[in-house]
Each structure stands twice: as structure tokens, then as C-alpha cells.
């Protein structure tokens, strides 16, 4: 604390990163990375960008990348906004679209950055509790508010909402921005992007960190009708007129274009998720139905923190949350089949 700090800074906590160990032998299932790595075509495009063009400034409009994203989703390039990871895209959305006199609604168990951004931007937030089975009850969102943000599938539960439910939510809130964070949608969820055509209040946010295995590159994007995208552009331009560096623009565009690698690797993740869910249930775990690249699971006889600690002693990292209602749970990233086997073998020694 310093007398030079604004009161908002005093309420913010420094980011505590998930462990990023360097020890090769650790099984790292704690930060929802994708074990298969980026598309070989994306790697080649990034190598070429490094070799040929780093003396030049990047394209300030990221046109080729926005065109690739637009082709993939069947929208126009000017309905696409790109940024340094979906975290930055979300931050711009909070700054650009949320009002200060009415609260933002979000689930009480959800991505932890939403309440942080609310504090940072001075926006009131109202947490809407999940049902007992950890699903989102959209009837509870039928109340006066300034905006709504939902991850679909939700994190860290992994549970998704069907498109019809999102459509009903949009119809009930025509005058508020509704942000759907689809960080994990490619692992079995239903994307709301097609709804952007008919709903001028919908912004859908995606990341290349999960299904494209490019967490280290920091690329995310938003899709919505032109006025919402323009609002994000205005905020971005006031920070930095370059949305992404040249390597990121080249690699992300090639990754988006490589549908074959995308389908093959996400298919492998989905298959391994099914196998891991079965193995955990066999060992007595309750596993929530996941549409993401992680599972959220608890064991009736073991505390979450103790389990995470015992796994760590066996060189397996998983994520544990201290929040009371979910303190029994572990969030386990879907790794390769071999990594998941090592997790299950470690659990056999513990539970
Ligand atoms: N939204 C959700 C729900 C997430 O879990 C994450 C990843 N932690 C993000 C957004 C941000 O991802 P990135 O900034 O890597 O695009």
C-alpha cells in the first residue's frame, strides 16, 4: 500500500499464477493447456514471420487473422475483434460495454477474472448462485441489471448450456450486453456465434489457448455486430493501436485455417476426457458432466486440498480452489492418455 495508489488498486490482488514448473517429469494438469501443441502449419507460419518480417510493424488491423476467423465462423471480418488472449478481449469488453450504474450478473462459481475486472473498472457485480447440481439457472438472471457474462461451458465446472437457453436469455435481455465466454466451447459445447446475426447485444469471446493449443501466444477474439466491435476497437486504440505482434497474427491465422489439426486434437481430448471420467468414477469420484478440456471431480472420503497435495507429492499437478462450496473438488486438465494414466495410478495409491 502506498499513498500514491488509487483506492481501486488497494482492492486488487497480484495475480497468483498456476504453477508453471520446469521439471519435465511432472504431469501438469493444473492450467487447462492442451497437450498436443499447435498446428504444424501455425508453427511454420510463425517461423516464417520471425525469419522474414520482424523489422516491420505488425498490421494494425490484423486483417488476415480477422479474415481467417471470419471464414471459420461465417461472419464478416469487421464483426471480429482480436486481442492478446481472451483475457485482454474481456477486459476491453468490460471497459467498453459495462455501465457503472447497474450491476453485471455472473455465476457465483465462475471464471475468477470477472469479479476482478469489475473491481478494476468500478462496476458493481451480482453473483448468481448455481443450482445444487452446479448448473446455471437462467431464470435467476431475469432481474434488472446492466449486463450479463457467462462462460459457456462454465469454468471450473465444465457444464455447458444449450444454445436454446442462451437464445432465451438474449430474448429476455434485449437492452443489456450479454457476453458469452466460449473459451472451452470447442470440446463439446454449442457456440452462440450464429446468434450474433439476430442479436445486437451479444458478444461471443473465444481463445486460441485451449482448442488451438496456443496458450503461450496470447490470442483471443470476440465476435459481435459492428457497434459492439467498434466499442472494443475504441478502447483498444486508446491503449495500443497494434492488437497483436506479427508472429501472433501469422501463427493464429494459420492455426485457425488448419481445421484438420483442430478436429484431430480436440477429438483426442474429448476421447481422453471420456476415459478419465470413467476411471475416476470407478475410483469413487463424483465427476460433473464436462464439455471442456478439464473435469471437475470430488471424492466423498477425501478433502480436495489433501488430495491435491497428495497428488503433488506424486509429481501430478491439479487445480484446487479454496472457495467453500467447491473446496472438495479438483479441476483436472485433460492431458494425453499417458498423463491421465499417471494421474489415475497416483490416485490408486491415495483413495
Ligand atoms: N475465459 C475462461 C473461462 C478461462 O478459463 C480462461 C483461461 N484461464 C480465459 C477466459 C482466458 O484465456 P486466455 O487469456 O488464455 O485466452
UniProtKB/TrEMBL annotation:
Top enzyme class: transferase
PROSITE patterns hit by this protein: AA_TRANSFER_CLASS_2 (PS00599)
GO molecular function: histidinol-phosphate transaminase activity
Pfam families found in the cross-reference section: Aminotran_1_2
Requisite cofactors: pyridoxal 5'-phosphate
Domain Aminotransferase class I/classII large: start-end pairs: 25-347
Keywords: Amino-acid biosynthesis, Aminotransferase, Histidine biosynthesis, Pyridoxal phosphate, Transferase
Keyword Transferase: yes
Keyword Plastid: no
Gene3D superfamilies noted in UniProt: Aspartate Aminotransferase, domain 1 (3.90.1150.10), Type I PLP-dependent aspartate aminotransferase-like (Major domain) (3.40.640.10)
N6-(pyridoxal phosphate)lysine: modified positions: 210
Catalytic activity: L-histidinol phosphate + 2-oxoglutarate = 3-(imidazol-4-yl)-2-oxopropyl phosphate + L-glutamate
EC numbers for this chain: 2.6.1.9
Pathway linked to the protein: Amino-acid biosynthesis; L-histidine biosynthesis; L-histidine from 5-phospho-alpha-D-ribose 1-diphosphate: step 7/9
NCBIfam families found in the cross-reference section: hisC (TIGR01141)
PANTHER family: HISTIDINOL-PHOSPHATE AMINOTRANSFERASE, HISTIDINOL-PHOSPHATE AMINOTRANSFERASE 2
Record's subunit section: Homodimer.
Family: Belongs to the class-II pyridoxal-phosphate-dependent aminotransferase family. Histidinol-phosphate aminotransferase subfamily.
Name of the protein described by the UniProt record: Histidinol-phosphate aminotransferase
Organism: Shinella pollutisoli
Amino acid at each position: 500500500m502506498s499513498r500514491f495508489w488509487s483506492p481501486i488498486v488497494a482492492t486488487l490482488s497480484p495475480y497468483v499464477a498456476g504453477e508453471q514448473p520446469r521439471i519435465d517429469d511432472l504431469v501438469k494438469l493444473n492450467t487447462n493447456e492442451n497437450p498436443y501443441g499447435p498446428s504444424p502449419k501455425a508453427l511454420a507460419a510463425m517461423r516464417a514471420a520471425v525469419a522474414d518480417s520482424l523489422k516491420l510493424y505488425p498490421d494494425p488491423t490484423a486483417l488476415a487473422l480477422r479474415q481467417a476467423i471470419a471464414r471459420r465462423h461465417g461472419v464478416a471480418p469487421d464483426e471480429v475483434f482480436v486481442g492478446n488472449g481472451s483475457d485482454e478481449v474481456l477486459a476491453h469488453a468490460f471497459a467498453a460495454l459495462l455501465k457503472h450504474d447497474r450491476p453485471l450478473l455472473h455465476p457465483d462459481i465462475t471464471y475468477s477474472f470477472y469479479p476482478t475486472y469489475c473491481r478494476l473498472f468500478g462496476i458493481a457485480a451480482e453473483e448468481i448462485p448455481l443450482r445444487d447440481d452446479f448448473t446455471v439457472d437462467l431464470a435467476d438472471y431475469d432481474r434488472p441489471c446492466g449486463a450479463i457474462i457467462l462462460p459457456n461451458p462454465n469454468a471450473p465446472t465444465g457444464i455447458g448450456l444449450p444454445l436454446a437457453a442462451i437464445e432465451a436469455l438474449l430474448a429476455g435481455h434485449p437492452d443489456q450486453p450479454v457476453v458469452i465466454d466460449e473459451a472451452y466451447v470447442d470440446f463439446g459445447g454449442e457456440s452462440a456465434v450464429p446468434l450474433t446475426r439476430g442479436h445486437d447485444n451479444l458478444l461471443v469471446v473465444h481463445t486460441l489457448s485451449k482448442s488451438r493449443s496456443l496458450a503461450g501466444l496470447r490470442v483471443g477474439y470476440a465476435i459481435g455486430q459492428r457497434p459492439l466491435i467498434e466499442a472494443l476497437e475504441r478502447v483498444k486504440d486508446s491503449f495500443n493501436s497494434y492488437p497483436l505482434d506479427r508472429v501472433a497474427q501469422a501463427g493464429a491465422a494459420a492455426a485457425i485455417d488448419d481445421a484438420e489439426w483442430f478436429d484431430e486434437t480436440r477429438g483426442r481430448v474429448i476421447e481422453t476426457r471420456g476415459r478419465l471420467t470413467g476411471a475416476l468414477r470407478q475410483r469413487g469420484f463424483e465427476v460433473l458432466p464436462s464439455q471442456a478440456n478439464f473435469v471437475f471431480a470430488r471424492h466423498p472420503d477425501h478433502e480436495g486440498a489433501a488430495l491435491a497435495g497428495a497428488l503433488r507429492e506424486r509429481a501430478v499437478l491439479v487445480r484446487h480452489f479454496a472457495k467453500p462450496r467447491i473446496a472438495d473438488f479438483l479441476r483436472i486438465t485433460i492431458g494425453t492418455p499417458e498423463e491421465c494414466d499417471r494421474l489415475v495410478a497416483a490416485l490408486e495409491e491415495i483413495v
